[in-house]
Every structure is written in C-alpha cells, then in structure tokens.
Amino acid sequence: MKHCIICLQELDLFKGLAQNQIMDLCHCTQKKKFSKGHYLFRQGENTSTICLIKSGKLKLTQTSVDGHETILDICGPGEVLGELSLYQDQPEHSSAIAMEEVCICSFSKLQFEALIKQDPTFAMRIIGYLGQKRYETMLNSGKETGLTVKERLLRLFYRFAEQYGRKTSTSTLIDLKITQQELADLIGCSRVMAIQALKELKAANIIDREERYYVLKNDPCISTHTFD
C-alpha cells in the first residue's frame, strides 16, 4: 500500500489530493510492468482501462488501411492513456507500444467512475486535467502552423529535452532512442526532409548525436532561432 501511495502522489494528475482520496485510489489500482515491444492496447480495440505511466516510455502508433504505420506521439512518466474511455465508447484510434520497460498504474473505467461519483472534488480535478490536456494539444497544434521542417524538428527536440533531458554544463542529452522515420512522423514530413533538417541543425551546432541519443546544445530558445 505504501508503494502505491507514493506511486500515485508522484503523478501530476493526483498531486494535491487528500490522503483519504489517495487511499481510495490505491484500493482499486493495479501496478503492472511490461517489457519493450509489449502492446498496452492495439488500434481498433475497445478498452475500458485507464493507465497512468509511472516509468518508461510508450509510443502511440496508427496503422493505415494499406498497412503503413505512423508514430503519433511518445508518452512518458506522469502521462495518462485511455482517459477518453471515460466519456466515449469508441475503439482505440491508435496502438500503445512500450519503447523500453514500462511501469504503469491502471484502473478499470468502472472503478474510476465510482470514485468520481463518490467524490465531487476528484471529479472536478479530472475534468480540469482533461480540459488542460486538450487545450495544450490545440495550442501546440496552432504553434506548428507556418513553421518550417527545421523549426518543427527543433521544437520537438526542445519538448523532448524538457521531458526526457539529462542536463550537463553545455548541453542536454535526450534520453530517448528514436529513429529518423519516427522523428519525421512526429513532425509530419518525409524521412528525407527530416534527415536534411537534422544535417542543418547539426551544422548550426544546435544538435549533435552521442551513440544512439540526440543532444541539444546550450538549451537554445526556439524563438531566437531563424533559418535561411
């Protein structure tokens, strides 16, 4: 029980909840670990589980009718998956795949709904969290409008540095193994265009590569960078 309390208190969604609210959550929480390559859920499945990522990273992918797989996003510690099942009964539009060992705290939809009905303050917190998440998605989408491939790629690296970065005195190593094709998918361009943008960012001494990890140098502020 103690480990469960610590697990939930560290997640953004539950920060600030009273001890009795955390205890109620612990009684219906399942802690699970998955190895790299495991599918948390698959596109087209009907799921009724809400998952809170404690550690590790998952990628959300979508497969087209002709079998082409595209990566939509990468999710890490503190993020929530499956929350849409709280207010809509539709098949998953994407698959969630572990990129490394992942630890999650999970609840069934029915358990979560029961807690919301019992505690109005908890319900308001969930509504606020989901609303903020949707607002941030819309805001980030708007910021991408009109940006070049290089600017979109740099913005993506900057976000990854905030989420998964390990800072040194001169740079930030992004603790995330990601392919060029996955980068291209995430910013909505071809792999060829992403490779060209990577070359130009490296030539400008903004990013580098150490083994299989990208390094963002000197924490550049996106708004101060312009590209010819």
Features:
single chain, 228 residues, alpha+beta, Jelly Rolls, Arc Repressor Mutant, subunit A, 2 domains, 4-stranded antiparallel β-sheet, 39% helix, 25% strand
Structure characterization notes:
This protein has 228 residues and is of the alpha+beta class. It has 2 domains: 2-143, Sandwich (Jelly Rolls); 147-224, Arc Repressor Mutant, subunit A (Orthogonal Bundle). 39% of the residues lie in helices and 25% in strands. The protein is built from 7 helices and 12 strands. The chain has helices at residues 2-9, 19-27, 109-118, 120-144, 149-164, 180-187, 191-203, and strands at residues 30-34, 39-41, 49-55, 58-63, 69-75, 80-81, 95-98, 102-108, 165-167, 171-174, 207-210, 213-217.
User: Element order, helices and strands?
Assistant: HHEEEEEEEEHHHEEHHEE
Number of strands: 12
Low-confidence stretches: none
Mean pLDDT: 81
Give the overall shape, derived from the CA principal axes. globular
For the termini, the CA-CA separation is 56 Å
How do the helices and strands line up, and which of them pair or pack?
Elements: H1 2-9, H2 19-27, E1 30-34, E2 39-41, E3 49-55, E4 58-63, E5 69-75, E6 80-81, E7 95-98, E8 102-108, H3 109-118, H4 120-144, H5 149-164, E9 165-167, E10 171-174, H6 180-187, H7 191-203, E11 207-210, E12 213-217
Antiparallel strand pairs: 1-8, 2-7, 3-6, 3-8, 4-5, 4-7, 9-10, 10-12, 11-12
Helix pairs in contact: 1-2, 3-4, 5-6, 5-7, 6-7
